[in-house]
Design a protein that fits this description.
By secondary structure, the protein is α/β, with parallel strands linked by helices. Helix 12 crosses helix 13. It has 14 helices and 11 strands.
Length: 409
């Protein structure tokens, strides 16, 4: 039985109107149409493909689910600390804490999100906590532990799609286009760090059958395929060796199956190995411009130029610690700094190769955006900077669609 949730809004007279809302009378529709005619220059709503979120982790990890539900409610208000912690499914299908759940997504421009499966270091008791800001990397995760966590999270994603007729797992371009047309909120299944994939790739087809269509080779720790970067400011992403032999094999295997390869968190040598090995264009789903914020997680001008030369894509992170020029993580950072990064991406990679990669539920984001409903705040800031509606559509969804269409063909 489908979960009882608001139906996805449709476009009517240039405004978002709920087709099942009986309160929307003919008179009200006519009044809305008159208002639209009175403001002919108002931009039409633009759908968004967002290149990265960690909502699966927030909803499936018991500690994070309890923390987010207690700490925040709608609009950032104090949550109900005395209420029971929601279950895994309720944490997404019902309004909850964090940046992204289904009810709030349906109130937002989000059409499709890349939902990352991520294995926290705490899942492997053999690892110890480290401070990535000090230049340390966590130890590699046991692949068996990682596979168990990833399958758990992908199961949750598919369960949510079965529970709601306004949420679906996107597996091909037809699914993607249906979601861009407003039929449902779409989720592209991704793994952030490929530790769950066997070194001999023997379980890659199983993960593909579970919906996996995007692979981030590393998070900020090593695994059997490559090496990630720490979270250090005033430092280079050139932090060590490139891909392992198994990493090169993984890239080729993903190409063969139509799985996008994401270089986010990968060190610079690994990035160049992907550019050389893959038949597809390089993609970095959520990052910033190193020239604006010199963090190891961000891309150099040379990397941006390569993405432009290869018709790839760079997605703008909303994580303030990788945006602020001084590396500050304060959530009062002005949205204009985000646009500074977009300007730099466009200058060095080109407007055809820039997208969004929020990192909702995985990083501290600007207070002005707040959660998924604040995506329009960034789009409006791009308008204020002088970007045309066509360019905003490219950044919001068209460039991501092009990249996935090329990989999935």
């Amino acid at each position: 039985m489908a979960h009882a949730l608001p139906a996805r809004h449709r476009l009517e007279h240039g405004l978002m109107v709920d087709p099942e809302d009986s309160a929307a009378t003919n008179a009200e529709v006519a009044e809305a149409a008159e208002a639209a005619e009175a403001a002919p220059d108002a931009p039409n709503p633009v759908p968004v493909i967002d290149g990265h979120n960690d909502t699966l982790l927030r909803c499936t990890d018991d500690d994070r689910r309890a923390e987010k539900s207690a700490a925040t409610g709608e609009n950032g208000a104090d949550g109900a600390e005395d209420e029971a912690v929601p279950g895994v499914d309720e944490a997404f299908l019902e309004r909850d804490g964090g940046h992204l759940d289904l009810p709030r997504a349906l109130e937002s421009p989000l059409a499709v999100g890349i939902f990352a499966s991520f294995v926290p270091s705490s899942a492997d008791p053999s690892t110890k906590p480290v401070d990535l800001r000090d230049g340390e990397l966590p130890a590699a995760i046991d692949p068996e532990v990682a596979e168990r966590v990833v399958l758990d999270q992908l199961s949750a994603l598919n369960r949510w799609a079965r529970a709601s007729d306004v949420f679906r797992v996107v597996e091909d371009v037809d699914d993607l286009d249906d979601c861009l047309d407003g039929e449902a909120l779409g989720a592209i299944a991704h793994v952030e760090g490929a530790a769950a994939i066997a070194p001999d790739l023997s379980n890659l087809d199983l993960l593909y059958a579970a919906g996996l269509r995007s692979v981030g080779i590393t998070w900020s720790r090593p695994n059997q395929f490559g090496h990630g970067v720490p979270f250090v400011h005033d430092a280079t992403p050139d932090t060590g060796d490139g891909l392992t032999d198994a990493g090169h094999d993984l890239v080729r295997a993903c190409d063969e199956r139509g799985i996008l390869v994401d270089c986010a968190h990968l060190n610079e040598a690994g990035f160049w190995d992907v550019v050389e090995t893959s038949a597809n264009s390089p993609v970095v789903s959520h990052t910033g411009a190193h020239a604006v914020c010199p963090a190891t997680r961000n891309l150099t001008d040379e990397q941006l130029a390569a993405i432009g030369d290869e018709d790839g894509l760079v997605g703008l992170t909303f994580g303030t610690g990788f945006l602020h020029p001084e590396g500050d993580s304060d959530n009062d950072m002005p949205v204009d700094i985000m646009v500074d990064h977009v300007d730099h991406f466009v200058e060095h990679a080109g407007i055809d190769c820039v997208g969004l990669g929020s990192d909702f539920d995985g990083a501290g984001i600007p207070e002005a955006i707040g959660d998924v409903r604040g995506l329009d705040v960034l789009l409006d800031a791009l308008r204020d900077r002088g970007y045309s509606e066509e360019e905003i559509e490219q950044i919001a969804y068209r460039n991501w669609r092009r990249v996935f269409a090329n990989v999935w063909q």
